[in-house]
Amino acid sequence: NNLDTIEPGKGYYISMKEAANLTTIGSAITSKTISLTKGWNLVGFNSIEAKPMANALDSIAGRYLAVFAYVNGKWMIHDPNNLPGSDLTTMTPGYGYWIYAVTDTNWSLQ
User: Which superkingdom (predicted)?
Assistant: First the structure.
């Protein structure tokens, strides 16, 4: 399949046979709000810098149960109810994140 359009706020995982660079052309992201539906949401992190999980997810505090990301060859988790058991501590631009929302909500990026 061809990937013709990349939407702001959406997360994408691309299976590659070997390492490669992805060059994109388009307009700068203007919206800093991502709609989340109840259940799992694959999203991108629209920021120019990495942020601690608590800061990045502040606008949806209490409305999500977990965040997963595939980083350096392994799955990592952020569980706001079990911070000592969480190994995902930072949200980084360029990564996709699975967020489990307990209700429909809007994630406002700071």
Answer: Bacteria
Neighbours of 68 (CB within 10 A): 18
Per the DSSP assignment, residues forming a β-bridge with 69 are 76
Contact by Cβ (8 Å): 44, 80: no
pLDDT (tens digit per residue) in 24-57: 777 766 668 899 999 999 998 888 899 999 999 9
The residue among 51, 24, 39 whose CA lies nearest residue 109 is 51
Identify the pLDDT of residue 9. Answer: 66
CB 62 within 8 A of CB 54: no
pLDDT in tens, 2-19: 777 777 667 777 778 888
Domain edges within the chain: 33-108
DSSP string of 32-57, one letter each residue: -EEEE-SEEEEEE---SS-EEHHHHT
Instruction: Phi first, then psi: give them for residue 52, nearest 5 degrees.
Output: -60, 145
> Is the CA virtual torsion 107, 44, 93, 81 positive or negative?
positive
